[in-house]
Amino acid sequence: MALPQRTVTFAVGAGVALVTVVGTLVRDRDAYESPGRLLLGWALIAVGCSALVWRRRWPVPVAVVTLLCCAAYFPVSTVDLPVLLLAYAYALYTVAAQGHLASAITLAVVTMLSTVYVEQVVTSGERHVDDAAIFLMAGWFVGVIAIGQAHRTHQAYLREVEQRVRAAEREKDVRARQSATEERLRIARELHDVLGHNISLINVQAGAALHRHSKRPRGPEELVPALEAIRDSSKDALRELRATLGVLRQVDGEDGAPVTPTAGIERLDELTARARAAGLDIRTTVEGAAQELPPQVSLAAYRIVQESLTNVARHAQARTAVVTVRCDGDNVVVRIEDDGRGSAPGAEGSGINGMAERARALGGELTAVDTGSGFRVEARIPVGGGA
After folding, report:
1. Are strands 320-328 and 365-370 parallel, antiparallel or unpaired?
2. Which of 42, 52, 57, 330 has the most other CB atoms within 10 Å of its CB?
3. How many C-beta atoms lie closer than 10 Å to residue 164's C-beta?
4. Tens digit of pLDDT for each residue in 325-381?
């Protein structure tokens, strides 16, 4: 099992310090000072090294403490152990790594100026640190601070990369939830259009047949046409439901190409025939160019006509309806007009919203207007919207 980085760092530092202390003691074994100065020197070493425990919480104060211990130790002790100097360098590195670059530079400059002042002015007759050692110390401090700043930059880069990865994961989750929501809405809209139209026609046909039979009963044979119309409408509903569920089960066809919608403008005659069986007088006008629309545009136009005729049969109490599909430049225009009563003020059901969403999904628009003598639904869809 891999050891933590702090443990490895502490072990390496302790090993270096131990080797340095033992080597220095062996080298200078004849230069031991009095017991009092020896005790004071070791006390300063203990204080300076112990302060490193709090270097991450208070990096600048810890560096100042180790610097003061160094300033007190070297004049007092005759055995120049570099342990405190190593501790000060490590504290200076921590100051730079924690982001206090100005403080680290200030401490290094103060240390160098103090050393030069003491060696050149205070003890000019007896030098303890020669010029080469001063330059070496300056380079050492520059390197320590540079390494600390590089470490901080690297850690900041790693944190930024981690934040970007987390942000990308959150965005991916949001997009997945949004796609799932849009897919549920699309399925709901498709099922509403497929089932709502045919079930509404079945309801209208059954209600009309029962109404006629209750007014003037002529025998069961008069219900046969209505039952046949109900049979045909339910058959169409089941066929469209199976086709829609088949498209939802497989997004792509066997050859990898998108599945072609099963409904379109080419089936407009079947749609109007079922509506005529419910008692509506419907006139249709389809221009030749409108017969050759992209599959998605053709499906959207078909569903808009289907939903509009469903609303006419259920709510408008209209006698006639006019369906027009024509091309206007780069757009296909779908218009459904009836002579029934308009909608109540402010009323806007899911049917109109669903038609508007279909048009907007392909870059088009839809308007529904109460004309006073009826209701008009007009959709304008770009022909290239199904690309």
Report:
1. unpaired
2. 52
3. 10
4. 888 888 888 898 888 776 555 555 567 887 888 888 888 899 888 887 788 889 998
**279: CB partners within 8 A, 6+ apart:** 204, 208
Q: What is the CATH number of the domain that holds 310?
A: 3.30.565.10
The SS3 call for residue 105 is helix
DSSP state of 374: S
Length of the chain: 387
The answer to whether 79 and 28 are in contact (CB under 8 A) is: yes
Q: What is the pLDDT of residues 304-327, one digit of tens each?
A: 888 888 778 777 677 888 888 888
Range of the domain at 69: 5-129
Around Cβ 101, how many Cβ atoms within 10 Å? 15
Of the three residues 71, 106, 129, the one that is the final residue of a domain is: 129
368 backbone φψ class: left, alpha, beta (φ>0; ψ -120 to 50): beta
Q: Span 21-26, mean pLDDT?
A: 50
Residues 313 and 234 in one domain: yes
108-112, 167-171, 258-262, 344-348 — most confident range: 167-171
The answer on pLDDT for 64 being more than 80 is yes
Cα four-point dihedral sign 6, 9, 15, 20: negative
Q: Which of 174, 308, 189, 177 is nearest to 248 (CA)?
A: 189
**Is the dihedral angle over the CA atoms 355, 358, 361, 366 positive or is it negative?**
negative
User: Cα(92)–Cα(51) distance, rounded to whole angstroms?
Assistant: 13
State the pairing for strand pair 331-338/365-370.
unpaired
Weakest-pLDDT range from 45-49, 56-60, 188-192, 341-345: 341-345
Q: How far apart are CA 38 and CA 26, in angstroms?
A: 15
Domain count across the chain: 2
**Per-residue confidence (pLDDT) for residue 164, from 0 to 100:** 92
Q: DSSP state, 260?
A: P
Phi-psi region of 332 (alpha: psi -120 to 50; beta: other; left: phi over 0): beta
pLDDT in tens, 77-109: 766 677 888 888 888 888 888 888 888 888 888
End-to-end CA distance of the chain: 57
Who's near 306: CB < 8 A, 6+ residues apart? Answer: 193, 197, 263, 271
Q: How many CA atoms lie within 13 A of 268 on its CB side?
A: 24
Q: Which pTM was predicted?
A: 0.47
Token pair, residue 146, equals: 């540079």
